[in-house]
């Protein structure tokens, strides 16, 4: 068996689509044992209105959480590990691991509970079979399928889906054959909450009934757990998860109506197998019960192994290199060995009822944290959070409050214990100083707090996902910035900042400082935080380089220099020395060459020119001086409500298809919806004059700083131009 320690599967890995990878495991986990054995009891106790309210509240929490998950999934390139990967990439490995470890353990223990549930149904049909032998047989079959491959597990679930559909068909045939002989009023709009056989029908209440039913709605993570095995998780997770929730909700509501019309209240509360008795053909429902518990256990087995492997690949677990290894087919065999060992050990315990509530608590904590992630991302307003599926803040708030509320109505003590477990793992992982292979938003969170408290900083040296436009603008005369005022404002608005750097070569420092302070105030009035400072130096060049060096040592500092058009050949030469100094300090550069008449026009369209990359059109993490251009263009598109157009001109016409594929993939990875792509062939200079008209054209800035070329672009495009040079610390794919 060949193993790889890389977290990225080999090219030979089988990838799954929306239906097989997400919809099927999610639906099969939601349509579980609660539906077959407890929905009738819920309706008998709560009545038609109370039962519908129980189902509705449970699914409201899962719908909101599912939408939150979907929103996050459309914003990041989610790796293996499902919820663990989502939380880690947003709040860091420490938070992700503190949630992932108990989540993995609870997922493994849930497998054992599903096996016990299967055994109870089996013994109801075959009471003479040895209980432990049934458990062991089911475990070996489950583990063998999951260990072999996720592909085999998905194919097995297709078969199980057919069995469950057959059971529902049997129920539908009973309904059409006259089983619904009772009026809705027989069970009542609001039930008597008689209780259960276990408490001798001494009574119960609404929230107890809700707590019994709610685990039925906790299967929405089954498809998310397959995130690393999906062809397109950004599309599959939202569509598959929300479709499975919608279909299962309809099934639960229809079954609820059928049950209250087909059985008396006494039958509903006293007979857990009332669905079997009332179906057209009872064995089909029994088979569906077996299939539901088996499929839930199988989805949990496959998902648990992938959560453990993902944590191993990030160094969270002991012996992480071995735990995180993958076969050449992308199967986490070592993680499956550990998972199988844990499940087998818990089978020997024979009874997990004491810790069963803890399993539900960890599911609910996961739901709560996922909703918190969306609230944090929305609250920070970082440009890196641009999901293709946006949800209003009421959605994650509802999911968060609902999850926490359910935790404490189900079992307050266990809820506190589970929270303490998560906090304990967080404290342990924090001391380990884990090194994440991806960016998260924690630096952005800290910066947001600092800005709220101090309101005097442009920005810390931050990670790619926390990037915001913070411009340094050197000037000798603020009047010359009037023509670029709105462009600068629209690049920085709303979360960026502007630092005005005055170089007093023609007037006193005090006079220039006052004029810059007035200009900074104008920016602040438009919602852009701006500040001004004056650096005394004999020349413009030394003033700018000194300012860059001083600000580079600050905790909050600019990340790009905005240069107005050079007015003299001497200033052009100064720019040729200023730009390398900016690059050495990891600052991007924006060189603005305005059109003398058009200026910014109507601010309705932006062209971004992509250089000819022939013959290498492969997208890498380093896009090659395109990141800053794309981010600035996205900001202008958003603030102007403008059209965005990506243009490339290739010399060799045979490269046009490769160029189109590159541009399409770039749009997808950079999350640039509604963006027009133009690919042309021939001499670049000939095409520019005939290119689609835009109010601003953006080009890459070359180290040679050819001002003649820049002037010709302004003339040929008949528009203002912005020439952009990356700093290397921004990423359009973050």
CATH topology type of the largest domain: Amino acid/polyamine transporter I
What is the arithmetic mean of pLDDT? 86
- State the end-to-end CA separation: 35 Å
**Count of separate structural domains:** 3
Q: What is the approximate shape? A: elongated
Regions with pLDDT < 50 over 5+ consecutive residues? 1-11, 453-461
What can be said about the biggest beta sheet? 10 strands, mixed
Q: Give the radius of gyration.
A: 31 Å
| Helix proportion | 55-70%
Strand order of the largest sheet: 5-4-3-6-7-12-11-8-9-10
**What's the number of helices?**
27
| CATH architecture designation of the largest domain | Up-down Bundle
CATH homologous superfamily name of the largest domain?
Answer: Amino acid/polyamine transporter I
Oligomer: single chain
Structure classification: alpha/beta
Strand content: 5-15%
Under the CATH scheme, which class of the largest domain? Mainly Alpha
